[in-house]
Amino acid sequence: MILIVGNNHDDVLYYESKLRNKTEEKLYKRFPFVTGTLFSQKVGVVYGIYTNYVSSMIVSEIIKNNHVVLVINVGRCQSLQGDIKVGDVAISRQVYLGEVSLLDVENSLLGQVPGFPQYHLCDHYALEMMNDCFNRVASKQFSHVCSFISLERYINKDSDLDDINLNNMFFGQTKNIVFDNNSGGISLACTIHDVPMVSVKIVESYIGEPRTLNGYVNILKKYSELGKAVTACIGEISRNEVIMGK
Amino acid sequence: MAKKNKNERTYSIHKSTKRLRLIYIIVAFAILAAIIAFAVLSFITKDRIYTALLLGSFVVFVLMTIVFGYVLFNQSYTSLFTDLIDNTRENYQKISNMQQKLNKYENNQITELRSLNSQVDEINDIFSNTVMLSTGHLYDNLKLDYLSPDDKHAITIDSFLSHYKGFILANEVYRNALVYFTYDVNDDEDFLSGEDYLALYKVIILNFPGEGVLAAKDTKRHGFIVFIPKFDSLRVLYNGLETVCKYATVSKQVAGGLEVKPLKAAAVVYPYSDMEDLMSDLRYAMRQNKDINIYTPDRLNKENMELYHTSMNLNNIAKLFEMIAKANISVDDTNSSKVEYHKALRGLANHLGFEHVGMITLDTIKEEYFVDYEWSKNEGEHVFKEVNVVADELVDLIKQEADYDNTLAFSNRLNVNKDLGRLFDIYGLRSGFIFLVKTDSGQVTGIIYYLNKTKDMTLTAYDKESLVVFSAYVADFFRRIYTENEIHTAQRRYKSILRLTDFNVYSVDSDTYELTELSDGLIDAFGNYKHGQKCYEKLYGLEAPCEDCPLLKNVKKTSMIGKREYITSTILNRKKEQYPTLLMSPVESKGESAVLNRYDPQLFIHSFYGFNEEMERVLQSKTRGYVLFVSVDNADSLLKEYGEEGYQTRLRYFFRNYRRDKKYGDGEIYLFRPDTFAFIFPEDGRVDILDRVEKIYSIAKTKYDEKAINEISLNCTYFAFEYPQDYHSASEFFHSVNLFIKDNYKLFNQENFILADSGYVRLASREQFILSLLDNAIKTESLSLKYLPEVRSANNKIVGAEVLLRLTDKFRNAVLSPYEFIPVASKHGKIGTITEYLINRVGEIYQKYGISAFKVAGLKSLSLNVDIPYFEDESFLSRIDQLINKYHFPKGFLRFEFGERDIANNFELIKALSKKITNLDIYLTADNYTGAFISIDKLKQVGFKIVKLSRNLIMDLANDGTKINGVKSIMQDIKEYDMSYCIVGLETKLQYQLLSEIDKDFLVEGYYFYQPMDIDELLSRLKLMVA
Asked: What is the chain B residue with the closest CA to A195?
């Protein structure tokens, strides 16, 4: 199964609408989980997943009970002003846990959960495939391969990032960085279960700027382009490749 | 998720030859069967057809065998053996030179070679972390041929030359010298006897008695080659060599009288010369023909950073210190000096394997730490450069954690405390070394850092100490720059204030009244003083001290400079001084002060009043020269964009930059009009003025605000007036100038230079001017070609010619050097056009005269000078290929000449290009060769066939016949490598005679034979040769 994870229903509506032979259930009576097929590939869609805590728990649960071969995290994110514009698409190269700071624990780095790597590399092949699909299918959308920094908040002011920021330097990088709130948890779950993952999100706003209804609506309009590319990628995977895991 | 492996296709040479063999066997079997069948049928039926078929089959069989044999041979030899042999030979050479990066085999598609390549990778991995250390047993493991069992210094020459690398390995952590002691004796002379050699040997060992010194008699070079390990300093080595030379002079009674042969010493030092270059550098040192010559080449260039980490020898670090010691460092030219230090920092970082190196400096005004310099191994990946400002928090924490020697080293991220670690994580740092530059009070004013983002790194004590010493050296320099800058700033302000206020100062020796200092205003008015000149002579025109001298009489003195009155006093002195300073204060008269101020207070240049006074003086003095006027054509737009203050600031910036130019910034600047300024250049001629204009143009284009994307620069018209001509007064002169401006306004606003007297007009920008010349020449197909014949010296036969592109500057009556106009052509995308034009012209000539004139007369080649910019256009070679095919040049007819420096600076690139060039049947020639920058061995490696010796090698032959030995040596070396040489610049009979004694028949270019000629003359000379 390929699992698609989103914050809210809007994030996953496109994929849900494309599924055939759908079945629906609610995990823990809270989290809608729809399964079906897309291009003969079994696909699961779950939403209502906010924060890394929840994403880690739910994704882990789904992986345990289903043979998940790839997790695709979709939705919205925030970027730094400048290189990645609002409306552009960010595809994850690696994911950092921006709220983790256990430096007092021996041998731990900033952002590192002890026993885990400092950052989680997303699946290279899925990343390339996704990039390629974007270039082919979603021609109006600009896509960037980025580092995702996952926090438990929307960043409404720059000072929210003081712990991990020095003059706009984050984990050794100054550009191609976006911020979201659930990639980190998904990457942890995938690391434990050795399942590849990739995040593909639209930039909703810049950090330090408030989210607006207008902005949100504009993003929704772009969801179909994002959806086309992601489904094209799923189609490629189901047609060509035997997914063998990391 | 694993992707299907779409690996590059490989084939096994073994399998493919097996396949071929199988096909051959099957086909051969079939033919043999046919032969037998035809034979039987022929025998039975006696039919001739079967006999014919039998014969035919037999012929087919033989032909097939030949073809298969050829294909097999070609496949294996061409693709396999050449690669195997050449590459393996190179790799063995590298290992013997203790170099790290071995080459891989090219034919990676052959399975067997691919597996060899993976072994090469393994060896490279091991070598990259390997350092060669001495076994400490001196030469025990070397099989040396000692001349006597009791003497551990004297060995045979063959043994020496075979094992000298081993000597160095045995002493690799020290500096070691290879020295040739030689007498200047002709080869056929029997000047030196066995006793002379013995005496020399004794002197050498007496002065260099240390353990490990080895000496070998070299009768071919009439001297000894000596290995001196572990010497202390170059000065000590030099003293030793000097002593040997002093005591080893040989004098003999010959038929003409007493002949004295002094001893000469030429030395090279490892590791300043790389292992592979030692012998060629030593030969070069000998060729320099000095009495005592310790040659330490400086081969650090932009392509050559590899030099410092391709060796497994720790001693390579010494090269970087040597490089800094020899670099042209000056606090007066901080920019160039900084470049030298940055180069050295890069070299050290590269050598030790750091990914990033840089310097952070404290901006004392903004109180911020900013990145002054940063280099990263991978372009685009930086540490601090992208944010530019470094957080104070980081600097404070580093300072807290640093050792007593102001350094912080961390081999991996976990070896720092958590607070600093958090910040390192934000910057993504894994390992590194940091050196703090501090003031005496402990304030951190700078940081030198060597960092890694992707790997851990453990530094040995040796590495760490090298970094500490090196960084301290660099830090000291930058501290000095900082102090000097402060002093210069203070000095500049003081001088500016004096100018603006028209105060003047001068200092004298209180006993002798000799001047020791004059301020700028007094220099303007009276000229600079000579050492020993008295103040009363220079400033007051007297022959004895002034009666009202403030120093003598303790009164204030009144005097005039021009029309202005000054009062001189000793007000600046606080106590009795040996060299008191006297202050000349202007006396203010109402209404006049502003007009009579010689200095414009807004622009810091001389005022119009000053200009007027100066022109009066200059015209009366009857000296000659030029006044250059610079009219700012876009003054209005500058005023509109930047306001009055902004405009004046830009003008001041322009004047300041002009004055800072060491070569051209010597003229005084005067205000003529608010938008027109004048420069007075005494003794200049019209060509000098043009040189100045080109320089001033480029200064005018310097951006004031480097960060401003659309800054408006000064657009000026430059026009020059010669003086004195017929001008009798300044007012007459100014009237002419005003008239000129009025009459020639149409020539303004185009950035022209106009020579007022002759009416000559051209673009002020040198680059634009050259471009216009080029464009015109290409458009009218009038790019001038000259041919400089290459001649065989024995019979004057022209066997080749160098094609010279000529672009003439008619104003200067000079031919532009290709080194100047080729880069301009390259910058504007005209290189391809020029070269194609050249080859087309050559091709047309070859088509017309190739058989009739060239081939018959024996003209075998035409050479073209090429530069690296040519090859930056990737399609260049393919266009050349097309042209070659079009004109069907024979193999080797076309030759490309590269200058020695170009080859050395772009060695790897040329090596990569050489195969492509030779595949086009174009031969490679090394031009302007001296041996200083690259060895003959390396030229051979790359595929150069011919070496043209620099004209400098034979230039002084007429005056100094002893230089012939140097030339002889290089000619012999070239021959030993199976290459040809060509002597360039042969101009006199004496040079010819001296060179003929070495070689009766050599290839030569020079005015003694022919000067550059056009094609018609070349053809007529060729015809004469045939006739």
From this structure: B1
The answer as to whether B42 is a domain residue is yes
From the CA of B454, how many Å to the nearest CA of chain A? 10
Task: Please report how the helices B418-427 and B392-401 are oriented relative to each other, as an axis angle in degrees rounded to 10.
Answer: 130
For the ranges A118-122, B478-482, B986-990, the lowest mean pLDDT is seen at B478-482
Q: What is the pLDDT of residue B498?
A: 86
Q: Rounded to a whole number, what is the distance in Å from the CA of A214 to chain B's nearest CA?
A: 33
* Residues of A in Cβ contact (< 8 Å) with B421: 103, 109-110
- CATH (domain of B514): 3.30.450
Domain count, chain B: 6
Interfacial B residues in 412-471 facing A (CB < 8 Å): 413-414, 418-419, 421-423, 425-429, 453
pLDDT of the residue at B976: 85
Residues B255 and B380 in one domain: no
**Facing residue for A126 by CB, picked from B1, B413, B427:** B1
Q: pLDDT above 70 covers what percent of chain B?
A: 91
Closest partner CB to B418 (pick from A104, A175, A243): A104
A101: which chain B residues are within 8 Å (Cβ-Cβ)? 422
**Partners of residue B422 in chain A, C-beta under 8 Å:** 101, 103, 110
ipTM for the complex?
0.80
CB contact under 8 A, B423 and A166: yes
CATH class of domain segment(s) A2-240: alpha beta
Q: How confident is the model at residue A17 (pLDDT cuts 50, 70, 90)?
A: very high
User: Are residues B48 and B96 part of one domain?
Assistant: yes
- Burial label, B470 (beta-carbon count in 10 A; 0-12, 13-18, 19+): buried
Domain spans of chain A?
2-240
List of chain A residues whose C-beta atoms are within 8 Å of the C-beta of residue B390:
167
Mean pLDDT of chain B: 83
Q: Return the sign of the alpha-carbon dihedral for residues B39, B44, B48, B50.
A: negative
**Which chain B residues are Cβ-neighbours of A196 within 8 angstroms?**
1
Tell me the C-alpha distance between B733 and B735, whole Å. 5
Q: Is residue B188 part of a domain?
A: yes
Q: Are B17 and B63 part of one and the same domain?
A: yes
Judge contact between B110 and B12, C-beta under 8 A.
yes
Question: Shortest CB distance from B3 goes to which of A125, A169, A174?
Answer: A125
pLDDT digits (tens, 9 = 90+) for B696-754: 999 999 888 777 777 888 999 999 999 888 888 899 999 999 999 999 999 999 999 99
Spatial distance between the Cα atoms of B140 and B169, rounded to a whole number of angstroms: 12
List chain A residues with CB under 8 Å of B386.
Answer: 169, 174-175
B20: nearest Cα among B62, B67, B63, B60: B67
Q: Are the C-beta atoms of residues A5 and A44 closer than 8 Å to each other? A: no
For B105-123, write each residue's pLDDT tens digit: 877 777 888 888 999 988 8
What is the span of the domain harbouring residue B721?
601-650+662-757
What distance in Å separates the CA atoms of residue A167 and residue A155, rounded to the nearest whole number?
16
Q: Do A171 and B426 touch (CB under 8 A)?
A: yes
CATH label of the domain that carries residue B872: 3.20.20.450
B688 within some domain:
yes
Quick one: tokens of A246? 């990391």
Q: Do B386 and A174 touch (CB under 8 A)?
A: yes
